[in-house]
Amino acid sequence: MSENRIQRIGVLVMSYGTPESIDQIEAYYTHIRRGHAPTPEQLQDLKDRYEAIVGGVFPLRENTDNQVKALEARLNEKYPNITFVCYQGLKHASPFIEDGVERMVQDGITEAVGVVLAPHYSAMSVGGYIKRAQEKADELGLNIAFVRSYHLHPKLIEALALRVEEALARFEVPKERVQVLFTAHSLPEKILEMKDPYPEQLLETSRAIADRTGITQWQFGWQSAGQTGVPWLGPDILDVLRSIKQEERAQHVLVCPVGFVSDHLEVLYDLDIEAQKVARELGIQLERTRSLNTDPLYMETLSDVVYALARKD
Length: 313
Description:
Strand order of the largest sheet: 2-1-3-4
Structural class: alpha/beta
Distance between the termini: 4 Å
Binding site for Fe(2+): 185, 266
Shape: globular
Number of domains: 2
Function: Involved in coproporphyrin-dependent heme b biosynthesis. Catalyzes the insertion of ferrous iron into coproporphyrin III to form Fe-coproporphyrin III.
Protein name: Coproporphyrin III ferrochelatase
CATH class of the largest domain: Alpha Beta
Radius of gyration: 20 Å
Mean pLDDT: 95
Family: Belongs to the ferrochelatase family.
CATH topology of the largest domain: Rossmann fold
Helix content: 40-55%
Number of strands: 8
Pathway: Porphyrin-containing compound metabolism; protoheme biosynthesis
């Protein structure tokens, strides 16, 4: 896309999505399960998780809304030669990915860039978002290019490293005595057979943060695996905490969820409630790094990768 030709570019900002209220949870869960309604027990479990979070479901949706607004503001402030208009496209809730593409076309957008609020590429995650957006764009005649990953962007690494250093200061022991766990959302093990880049990209991000902060006591763990009857990537963070206790490796643990960019269920429940409960039972002090949300360095990361594609012929 040439900046000389194109003065107005749509940005499709894609993410997983979350319901806007408790009464939307069943439809949301049914969509995740590809049209199969959850059992009453499964539905109640998910409702309980949302209700356990301070403020319930509402702040989760607001986090994504704020990120989209902040990205649009940063793009237009930083690159006044182009007018950027951001549209939201969610995987499992309205506005769906296809809705975002359709709204761009309705608004007269002819050139667009798609970016996912997830730094690491997997064919099963980011690849799926891109496929849906591309199919709708092809149907409607929209020219769209996609950011596939940005897991080693210097500003992303800087933002995450600053959070690790900030969180390490909460411990009353030297950082050498703190075990750092980098985590991300688990995916089915079959991605290993596909030579999917997801696990290695996550390790690359973790290594870059460790190098920048001087951490030597760190490992990677997975979290939030689905209950699908097939094996998912492990070890799970709860098992990692138990092994740390059993092997007496540390009494102080810092979790840095590098695979997540905002506060949502997998962070506020799976880490702050579920993992904290296990840690307390084990006598482990567990702390977590702050989420990126609308951090200026994260907005810089996103604006850089979007603009790089907007400039291409």
